[in-house]
Amino acid sequence: MTNEYVDGDINTIDDNYDDANVDQVAQADVAVAVLTYVAKALADEPEAVSVSAKDSGNKVILSLQVGAGDMGRVIGRRGRTAQALRTIVGAAGSRDGVTATVDIVD
Asked: Which stretch of DSSP H or E encloses residue 39?
C-alpha cells in the first residue's frame, strides 16, 4: 500500500481554489429554508412570510418579513423567540460553512 496521491483523488489539494470567490448566499440555502419553515409555522399568515438573503462581507444576512399581526409572535417576549430563530439559523448555516444572521424587518 502506497501513500501517494493519484490525480483527481478527493484528498488532493486544489491550488486554484479561492475562498474569496465562493458565493455565500448560494451556500446559505439550508439556512434560508430553515428560517422560512420555522417562521411560517409560527405565523398566523404564513403566506405573508418572506425571506431574502444578502452577502455582507464574511457573513450572510437573512431578512425576515412577516405580516403586521405576526411581528410580536416572531419576536416573542423580550426577544426570546427571535434569539432562538437566530440560534437555529446560525446552526443551519454553519452546517454549510456560512455565518448566517437574521434581521426581522417590518
From this structure: helix 29-42
